[in-house]
Amino acid sequence: MNLEDKNIRKALAEKYLSAETSVEEERALACYYSDHQAEEDEKAFAAMVTATAGDYLLSDEGAVEFDRIATSKAIPLKINIFRWAFGTVAVAAAVILGVILFQNPVEETPISAVTIAETIGEIMRLNEENILSIEAKPQGSKAVLTVNLKNGITQTYIMTLDEETGATLLTQSSQN
Predict the structure, then answer these.
(1) Single pTM value for the model
(2) How does pLDDT run along the chain (176 residues), one tens digit per residue?
């Protein structure tokens, strides 16, 4: 193989970049570019070949070791890439799962005493002639309002706040 011929070097460069070169071809390219000045359009490729080859490929002992490693029954590159990709996906999934499982729970905004008092006052104004009493029990982001009517009927409402509008919502829970 005559690497003095630029067409041969170009063909080997294409094979090298496609990972199709033999050990001997890679060694020949590394030796050629370490001993010869690369032409202007070959400088980047020459720098890559000589940088990846290192001194071990150019020495006789290094070449023997390189041949041994390169011709050994190694796991094919496709399997290594698959294992790497699968491992990356598995790690990413574990991180996402950890974030979901161990995130701090969303803290509920408690209903303030002022909001409860205003709501009770509004209920009283709407029907004060029939209401005997109203009892409120705050429970975090909601409050249970028990309305005792003068006719003996008791109505229970769940009071919540609409997070978006801030409006007070009452939902009838039960009537006795």
Answers:
(1) 0.39
(2) 788 899 998 898 888 888 888 878 888 888 888 888 888 888 888 888 877 766 555 566 666 666 666 666 655 555 556 666 666 777 777 777 777 766 655 556 678 888 888 888 888 888 888 888 888 888 888 889 898 888 998 989 898 888 788 788 888 887 77
